């Protein structure tokens, strides 16, 4: 399994990509501004510069998009303190026949990122998915209600649950691709009906 420290590496990738684009945008705009601003005054025999870019103005950068409408994922990405937008991915999240929980998380994270990246080819898109399993084969879905949630807790009592959290980065414009999956084991203590 990939260690939790790998989560920081993908955050570094997101941050460094944004900073790289910020630098490229500033340089390109500066060159365009210089070309646009120079003209020659024959009467005074000197160069006049007009419309120079404001050095204190924010420099443009490629947009960062979270391919998810999850409030929790949005809050996690906000910790990077980078501007980003949220777009809903158009992805069928049904598991494939015989697909392991780990493989499902990786596939769905990539599919979500690709879905939004196709609509915004210049943006750096972050896709994510998480699956949980008690036996390594069956994916535990979201309970969706109190009755199902209690049933899942009873099933997990005294056992180890595996969480597979996948992240995917996509940018169509330059073919940038990054994938990561972190596997985490959580051991539940024994839970009786009173605690549940």
Strand and helix order: HEEEHEHEHEE
Strand order of the biggest β-sheet: 4-3-5-6-7
Mean pLDDT: 79
Categorize the overall geometry: elongated
State the helix count. Answer: 4
The residue fraction in helices comes out at 25-40%
Beta-strand portion reads 15-25%
Most strands sheet: 5 strands, mixed
Q: Residue ranges: pLDDT <50 for 5 or more in a row?
A: 1-6, 25-61
Structural class category: alpha/beta
Annotation, overall tally of beta strands: 7
The rounded Rg comes to: 24 Å
What topology emerges from the helices and strands here?
Blueprint: H1 5-37, E1 38-41, E2 46-49, E3 64-66, H2 71-78, E4 85-86, H3 101-119, E5 124-133, H4 146-156, E6 160-171, E7 176-187
Parallel strand pairs: 3-4, 3-5
Antiparallel strand pairs: 1-2, 5-6, 6-7
Please name the defining characteristics of this protein:
two-stranded antiparallel ribbon, 24% strand, 196 residues, 5-stranded mixed beta sheet, 7 strands
Task: Tell me about this structure.
This protein has 196 residues and is α/β, with parallel strands linked by helices. The protein contains four helices and seven strands, in the order αβββαβαβαββ. It has a five-stranded mixed sheet with strand order 4-3-5-6-7. A hairpin with a 4-residue loop joins β1 and β2 (46-49). Mean pLDDT is 79; it is low at 1-6 and 25-61.
Short structural summary:
With 196 residues, the chain is α/β, with parallel strands linked by helices.
